[in-house]
Write a structure and sequence with these properties.
Layout (H helix, E strand, L loop, with lengths): L1 H8 L3 E2 L2 H6 L5 H13 L4 E2 H6 L8 H6 L28 E5 L2 E5 L26 H13 L5 E5 L8 H12 L6 E6 L1 H4 L6 H7 L5 E7 L8 H12 L4 E6 L8 H13 L2 E7 L14 H11 L10 E6 L4 E4 L5 E3 L4 E5 L5 E5 H4 L3
Parallel strand pairs: 4-5, 5-6, 6-7, 7-8, 8-9, 9-10
Antiparallel strand pairs: 1-2, 3-4, 10-11, 12-13, 13-14
Helix pairs in contact: 7-9
The structure holds pyridoxal-5'-phosphate and iron/sulfur cluster (SF4).
Length: 360
């Protein structure tokens, strides 16, 4: 009886260590210790995801992503509060302009879930950076006066936490800037809280002058519940293309079977896997990091084994704000007499004669 009452109260999920204990996700002793983590980093384990967790399992991949751990208090020397150098490329508050043809707009600081490995963990959540109406006006002015800006990427936090009305207003403004041809949302909402992906919200994105893309963040096939699949379908039914972005995470998806299942699930749901991110050097996330060599090896195992449609690019955002680059694996190396040595998917080397095959 008590449990039922509590479930009615906690219907939205858990945002404190105490609430996580009530959900049976941590013990009450653990909850006491986790107050130190809660003091530093936002917590949100939304109802939808809490209900997907297998509480009997030791290392449930969903629990590992949303239940805080004391390991988050451990920071290493190479970690940074601004791991990918957003601040060094921010001409206007909330806007990051690192590449000539596209800008990031951090339109909202809240998320439905707070991922324990979040690379913007110092900025998201209550008390984080928030764009005021004046900031938005200034950012729009910046975009308007920079004709090279072809794409605007809405991020945060989670831009889809804004109301359908506010999203609509923002997209109206961007639609008025002729040179902006593409608007991309980066969101975790279909995974974190699919019930918030309403028809109104999706409709606000459709029938726009600028082409709208949605990048859905997901790290494990278990995140694709029937509700999440239905939420994704709302976008594709209205002709809004979806791409997937995934973070490589130790103990969650750092094996070829798990990644293969995730990327296939995405393709089946009409989501093109776009990036597999090597984890950024965000504070207190060392327990999630794997070496780049591990990521390269995993990508090698996927190539040839699953459809090319299901293989994203493995990406590193170079610490310090130098941008994103693919980090392999590489199948090509130089060899003598002008040829190139190419490795096939079984690791066997072949010489490709560049001279013979070129038009010269
Ligand atoms: C990641 C990022 C982008 C988008 O990069 P793509 O390779 O186009 O996905 C754009 N601007 C900034 C500042 C970024 O960090
Ligand atoms: S949804 Fe994205 S921005 Fe929000 S906590 Fe997770 S990784 Fe960070």
């Amino acid at each position: 009886m008590a449990r039922m009452t509590h479930h009615r109260i906690q219907n939205t999920g858990a945002t404190t260590p105490e609430a996580l204990a009530l959900e049976g996700l941590v013990t009450s002793d653990e909850a006491k210790n986790l107050k130190r983590v809660a003091h530093r980093y936002a917590i949100s384990a939304p109802r939808h995801l809490v209900d997907l967790i297998d509480k009997a399992a030791e290392n449930d991949p969903i629990a590992l992503q949303i239940v805080p751990s004391l390991q988050e208090l451990v920071t290493t020397d190479d970690e940074s509060v601004d791991p990918i150098g957003d601040h060094t490329h921010s001409p206007v508050r909330g806007l990051v302009h690192r590449y000539p043809d596209r800008v990031l707009l951090k339109v909202h600081n809240a998320c439905a879930m707070y991922c324990r490995f979040c690379f913007r963990r110092e900025m998201v959540g209550p008390g984080g950076d928030i764009m005021t109406d004046a900031d938005t006006t200034e950012a729009l002015g910046y975009i308007r006066s920079n004709k090279k800006i072809w794409e605007v990427i809405l991020t945060g936090g989670d831009p889809m936490m804004l109301s359908a009305r506010r999203i609509s207003t923002l997209l109206d403004s961007l639609d008025c800037i002729e040179h902006v041809k593409v608007v991309r949302f980066h969101t975790r909402l279909p995974v974190a809280a699919p019930e918030r992906v309403t028809q109104d919200l999706v409709a606000a994105l459709s029938n726009r002058r600028a082409t709208v893309y949605v990048a859905v963040h997901s790290n494990h096939a278990r995140e694709f519940s029937a509700d999440t699949l239905a939420a994704c379908r709302k976008f594709t039914d209205l002709g809004i293309p979806l791409v997937g972005q995934t973070v490589l995470l130790k103990g969650i998806n750092d094996n070829a079977d798990t990644l293969a299942e995730l990327f296939r699930t995405m393709v089946e749901a009409r989501i093109m896997p776009y990036y597999l991110h090597h984890p950024d050097l965000a504070p207190g996330t060392g327990h999630f990091r794997v070496p780049i060599e591990t990521g390269q090896e995993l990508m090698k195992q996927l190539r040839g084994r699953i459809s090319g449609l299901a293989i994203p690019t493995y990406i590193l955002d170079i610490p310090g704000g130098y941008g994103k680059v693919p980090v392999g694996p590489s199948y090509i190396s130089g060899s003598e007499d002008g040829g190139l040595e190419i490795q096939d998917i079984n690791g066997q080397a072949h010489i490709y004669q560049t001279q013979k095959n070129s038009a010269l």
